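Hi there, hope your week has been kind to you so far. It would help a lot if you went through both lines with me. No rush at all, and the record is pasted right below:

***
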Amino acid sequence: MLKYNEEGKISPDLAEKYTTSDDKKTYDFFLRTGVKWHDGKDLTADDVIFTVQIIQNPEYRRASLQGVEAEKINNFTIRFTLKNPYSPFLDNLTFGILPKHIWENIPAVSFSLSERNLNPIGSGPYKLTKIQKDNSGVVKEIQLSPFNEYYFGKPYLNSVSFKFFKDEEGALAEFSNGGVQAISYISATNLPKIRVNTSIQKIILPRYFAVFFNQTENKALADKNVRLAMLAAANKQEIISKTVSGQATAIDSPIPEFIWGNNAPLVASEFNLDQAKSILDSSGWTISATTTLREKIIDKQAVSLEVNLLTVNWHELVDAANLLKESWSSIGIKVNLDVKSVAEIQELIKARQYQSLLFGQILGVDPDPFAFWHSSQKKDPGLNLSLYENKDADKLLEEMRKESNPDILKQKYAQFNKIVVQDLPALFLYSPIYIFPIDNQIKGINIKNIHLPVERFSQIHKWYIKTKRVWK
């Protein structure tokens, strides 16, 4: 019903307007009339209610909107009632709407396996024309054509095709040959390979990479001095320079200041190996004469300063992990690097079976860090990867969800940042820049700020290749 515009702000889409009650618990949405599905059927409140019910269904693998009541007022009006005020609620209403007449007889648990996915019916500016597969049945290209009855007007481009490649190098080669006019994403190391006559869109997305410490799995990491030393020995600028060719911004807190302009963190994160060594020396982590590792007596037992670092098998993160390993080894910390596939790492994350984890988290344009840092989210499906628990932080997280005043919310975000930076449950590294190359012939693109890469298409109905003079 809503979408993010080119500036990353919530704007009307299927919903023409909405109203909010004074207590911020009731929202009335008014749908545009005359909106059509690609098969010619009318899009009404029944489709919205049906979609919300599917999203709330626990059999659906991404169940959400729990505790939200959706009520049909008439064919084009829906009322949402919340149990408690929730300031990021509008961000939760940017989901796509499903046509009830197509999906109502398909169980939610079977959605991903339904043949209807091969002939999707939507309401957007382009509709499916053809799916091309290779001899083994792998999709190679999806072709779309304009939907003339699109509610924002007929789109300008005569066709849109998505081609799929097994790797980035294949996509780059096709782009260089003129076979495609844009690439969904390229890594910073491949920027020099982009041909001339290309517009390079660079956007800092609200996401970051960090090392999350699981102190329950490693006694050494439970010592804050060890974590402080690891912070001082982490050369963030070197990591950014060598892994993403400088295409990132260093961060020091769970809500990066480029999102909300938070105050500077209490603990500075300057790279200083001598300081890191000094922290370990002064806190009792001395070099063992027998093992040559740093050791400390904890609970009457000798504990070696040895840490396992887990990350996903993606070259940028593997390179970053190796740089961290090199720096930490130089101050006397033994690091065992463990690289896993995405599927393997997801299972380990669910079970919280890691000592330290180099991984990423995606925030919203209106960030709600509750799922990432509240103590109630320490177990799956929560995303509190550091198993972090702080009563003051929990209180702020709960208050932030109910606060609608931007100035007060900004203050609470700043307070929350300070608490987390002081406790140091994670080592925050950088926010990467999203790089989207597109041929200069494509006009009408005005991307300034987006939340997810897919949102670069939010204004695709305005894209065009050439213009004609029209006498008025």
Observations:
- The chain has a mean pLDDT of 91.
- Residues 207-432 form a domain with the Dipeptide-binding Protein; domain 3 fold (CATH 3.10.105.10).
- The longest strand covers residues 426-439.
- The chain has three domains: 2-115, 116-200+437-462, 207-432.
